[in-house]
Amino acid sequence: MILVVDDEILIRDIVCEELRLAGYKTLEAGSGRQALKMIETNPTAFHFVISDVVMADGNGIELLENMHRLFPDIPILLMSGFAELTVEQSIEKGAVGLVKKPFEFREILKIIKTYVHERKVS
Amino acid sequence: MRILEGRKRASLTILSIVIFCLLFMVVEWSYTVAKSGEKIRSSFATAHRDLENKATGFESTMTMLKTSLDIAHRLTPLPNFHIPTYGPNKYAYAEPEIGSFTYVGAAPSPQTRLLLASLIHLLPMLKFVKESHADVPWVYFTSSNFIYLYPYVAPKDFFFDVHQLTEVKEFYRLGKKEFNPLRATFWTSPYIDLAGQGLMMTLATPFDIRNQYLGTIAIDFKFDVFAQSIGQLKMQHGDLLLLGKNQELLSENNFQTKSHTIENQKLIKAELTPIEIAQLREPGKKDLSLLDGQYVIWKKVPHLDLTLYFRTSMWQHWTSAFYDLKASGYVFLFALFLIVGVILVERSENARIKISEETNRLVALGEMCGGIAHEINNPLAIIKGNLSLVMKKIELDQEIKPQDLLHRLRLSDQTVDRIKDIVQGLRFFSKDYDRSRHEEFDLKEVFEMTIPLIRGRLQKENIEIEVELAQSEYRVLGSRVEISQVLINLVNNATDAITEHQSTGRRWIRLRVDVRHPSIRIEVQDSGLGISDQLTQTVFQPFYSTKSRKRKDRFGLGLSICKGIIEAHQGRIYYEKPDQVSTFVIELPLLAPPQTVA
């Protein structure tokens, strides 16, 4: 199960649709806080998290930090329309990567495949 | 307009420099006038003393002549020579060797013969007197029936009329006892010489033998001899005049001595009529004081019966002193440099402020830039995502429901509009946009174009933005871009204040618009700590900043520029803290809503 976090419903909608097409099950959250709550409720259900960085309520960096602390096993990929964070910085903070909006979905898929596959293998 | 403080300070500096210079100049000027007055008094005294010395010197010469004639007359024996007479009136002429001699009458008496013999003895002395003074044309003795004259004048040129000589001519008439009981040497009034020598005065002395008036010894002086006394004096300004008894102008220092030629006699006569001068004052008053709008000094020259008179207009007296100012020149030069310096400094400060104004706008834009990128990239991601989904389905030969396709395309279309709105807001930051153009607009438009520009940064900093518009329309006259710039500045400031100082609690910025007739009140509130009461005025001054120094993008100009813009809109901007909520307030004049045309 992949959790898609963005306060922009249209983005969530597209990402989820793409993931479904690629054969993944998805869930959506409108903010970092909501996402954390959902994971805390059922930590084993989620294999991957894709999160926006800038959100009105509880941003992606906070979510990343909390996840890194609480659920270091679940990989998290950041999406951003901002130039405030580089890929290196996001990896340093514990993310598996950073894609910049507007993105090619292939990039996201490529990263997910690596991690979700590994997880399945292990 | 926005730089009033600097300009006021510069103007005050320049004003005080100018006032100081003027005061300095007035002091030096008065001093120079006083000094120039002293110089004039001293020149005047020199001229007066010179005239007096000349007069007394010539008088001594005359005394010598008189004594010599007296002695000669006593020592000379009665001569036995014959004096030939000619013509009906029996004129007699002497020869060059003994000087001119003209006698009128039948036969010269022994007394006349004795006097003539004495004069012939005296001839070398008369010669000496004449030759030692360039300005002496004649030396002569005149009695009731003859005249003896040096130098020699040929009979045909000589004019002799007994009546004219003895009754009209002052030099003879004033020798008579009834006019000269003291038998004193005297000067005649100035007159025009009939022989063409110009203006002259005669020094004469009566010659008596045993109490009997025999005639006068006379020396003629060209007036030049006195005119020189004042002509060679260099007065700084004004006129030094030599006046006759009837205030006729005889000479003045600004001109050469009166002309000598007979052709100019008419002119000289005309000039000898009294001139219009300020009335002579009673003697004893302070010299060089004001009389009829002129500064005057006058003093009689006792022997010559002339008046030396100085006059200058008040204007001339003060202005000529002005040209003599020395220290003032340096002071003014110094002041000029200082003023130029102040102006240059002020100009460079203005230029600095102007550059900083531009920079401030760029900084505002820069701060929003990331937010704007987010605001554009998000919709772009939506459009791109929708399009790629559609493409992918086609590529995979999956069935696409027309409604689904329409939905995706419609979403893309609407999202394009979102980008369009932001780009339109950005258009006003363009260099080509006429920012100062004032027009009527609805304040809501400003909010609509401003919010998308600032939302991105606020989201990034986790700050909620609340907009409260109580009415549907607020008509304002002005530049929507400038008002938008003020709002962006205030929101950016609030954002900085929150991110730098607020560590806990909900972060928010509230924009409220309210009508308080006749103004619109726009409040920009934030959840930050606000600024202290003492600083509520100073924050609007240029180059003041409460923000940390390490931020390079801070110029401290934001609020002073905001103040300038709002004041140019006839509004005001101030800070207050109602219920401890940090609030910047903008008040703008409200226009009446547009009338619907019936």
- Please report the distance between the alpha carbons of the first and last residues of chain A: 16 Å
Mean pLDDT of chain B: 80
Largest beta-sheet characterization of chain A: 5 strands, parallel
Helix fraction of chain A by DSSP (H/I, runs of at least 4): 40-55%
**Tally of individual helices of chain B:** 12
Instruction: Give the largest interface pair and sizes.
Output: A-B, 24 and 27 residues
Could you describe the 3D structure shown?
- By secondary structure, chain A is α/β, with parallel strands linked by helices.
- In chain A, 47% of the residues lie in helices and 18% in strands.
- Chain A has helices at 9-21, 32-41, 60-70, 87-92, 105-121, and strands spanning 2-5, 26-29, 48-52, 76-80, 97-100.
- The mean pLDDT of chain A is 87.
- Chain A has a 5-stranded parallel sheet, with helices on both faces.
- In chain A, helix 2 (32-41) runs parallel beside helix 3.
- By secondary structure, chain B is an alpha+beta fold.
- Residues 256-267 and 548-555 of chain B have low confidence and may be disordered.
